Structures are given as structure tokens and as C-alpha cells.
Amino acid sequence: MYQVVAPQTEEEWEHYYEIRWQVLRAPLQEPRGSEKDEYEQHAWHRMVIDDQGKVVGVARLHIVNTDEGQIRYMAVIEQHRRKGLATIMLESLEAIARQESVKRVILNARKSATNFYENLGYHVTGEAPEIFGQIPHMQMCKPLEGVEVIIRNPQWCLDLQNIWHQQIPITQLMGIRVFQYTGSTFETRAALNPKMNLQGTMFAGSIYSLATLTGWGLVHLMMKEQKIEGDIVLADADIHYHKPVTELPRSIANFENIEGDFKPLENNQKARITVKVEVLDDVTPVAEFIGQYVVMPKEKIED
């Protein structure tokens, strides 16, 4: 399980900058110190840690002016790449930019990475200076006003959200919506105010509902990917609450945290899928949910 957090302690900052140097500067034979610039104290920093607490990815947002923010120093260590970590760091920094009322985010991407950023809503606006005169870069931009971060198969995500709103009307009152689906990670979000209790935090039952729907939604999308039909029901669940939600309710599930498969459906039997879901308050983990879902085979209609 990966988490996106802000570095806090001196040790965390050391690991944060070490990843920057190892991934971005050491391969260019640049000295230590070249991984920093004059904007460090005026920027938002995020890093990804694994389940052992090891820093495996880093990124930074600097607000250039009232309209524009720039993301720089995006780096993920090699053995943890292709797991969606860069995507979740980008999304976290873009969320901060939105909170700061920034209208667009820019970044300078290596030419080999432009397709990755284009898939996340960025477009090339021109050439950028080469890094240390060695690596060609392109400047890219993403408008933020009204942007929904639905990456893969947006129609599936819209259909899923409509199913929730039509069949479970309370999801509309809770403001639950699909926020992102990358093909490996599924994230939902909720509006906080309608569900705040007397302590100014989110009701535990609302957190449970958000996590349940996120797990259900990931199973639904997984079935769409594999062209499988069936009816999904929650058979059992367990949730552990660590901290209250006071700011931004987020619920994230990853394909890598799914156990089980759909093979029993081929024999007209039930399939059992276990999904682990993490609930966050912005970037702070607040609850862990494990849901056991049963997929019932579709009844065949006789002619």
C-alpha cells in the first residue's frame, strides 16, 4: 500500500531530497545541491511512501503567480515505476493548486514522457530549456477550471456514477462522485459539509459508505475491463478508523490490492473478490476498509 504524504521530519526531508538527486541529477553527473532551487521554502512538497515507510517517489508544486502553478522534480525510483505513483502525486499537487485558485498547471516534461502527461490532461505548449544542456524537454500545460480527473474510459465512470445516484439516492446527498480511474487506481470523493457531525468531522457511517462504494466500483470497473457480467453484492466488510475526516474525504482502491478472480462465473458459480480501500483526509490516511464482494452470475434468459 502506498501513501502520498508531505515530508515533515528532518529525516523525511533528507530522504525526499535524496530521491530527487538519485533519480534526476546523479545520472547527469550533477553535484549534490543541484536537486534544489530558490523556491523550496515557498512550495508544496509531496512524497510517496511504501508500506515500510520508505520514500519511493517525490514531486513539488510552486505557485508562479495568481493564475499559474508549476510542478517540478517529479521522480519515482525505478523498481516502483509503472504503478501509478506519478499519477497520484500529480493529482495531489493539482488538488492543492485548485485550493489556491490556480487556473492552470505547467511543467517541463522530457520528450519521452509527453504521452504520459497528455493522458492526464496536459498538452504541449512549446519547447522548454534543456536540463543542463543534455535532455530535451517540452513545456506542457493543464487548465484546472472545471477539470474532472477521470483518466481511463470516462464513459464507464459516468455510467457507474449514474448507477449510484439512481439506485442509491443518498449518494447524491453525500456528494459521492467518481474522481479518477487510471486503469490501476480508482478514487472517489465526497462533499464534507453535508455529513459533518457535532464535532465538525465526517460521520463514521459516511466514511464506511464511501469506502464500500469505492470497493464496489473498482470491482465493477474490473469486470468492464474483462468484459464480464454479473451482479455485485457486499458479503462482508471490516473497517478500522485511525483519525477523523475534517477537510477532503478521499477513498482510493488499487487493482494490486484485489484478491480473488472471476473464474467461477464461467461455471455459473459465485465469484468472491476481496478489495482493500484506503480513506484519506486530503493526503492523511484516516481509515482502512477491507470488503468481501460476491459477484453473482447473470441469469441466462431462455428463448
From TrEMBL:
Keywords, sorted A to Z: Transferase
InterPro entries: Acyl_CoA_acyltransferase (IPR016181), GNAT_dom (IPR000182), HotDog_dom_sf (IPR029069), NAT_camello-type (IPR050769), YiiD_C (IPR012660)
SUPFAM superfamilies per record: Acyl-CoA N-acyltransferases (Nat) (SSF55729), Thioesterase/thiol ester dehydrase-isomerase (SSF54637)
Ranges of residues in domain N-acetyltransferase: 3-145
Superkingdom, taxonomy of origin: Bacteria
Protein name as annotated: GNAT family N-acetyltransferase
UniProt key word Transferase: yes
PROSITE patterns xrefs: GNAT (PS51186)
MF annotations from Gene Ontology: N-acetyltransferase activity
Pfam families: Acetyltransf_1 (PF00583), YiiD_C (PF09500)
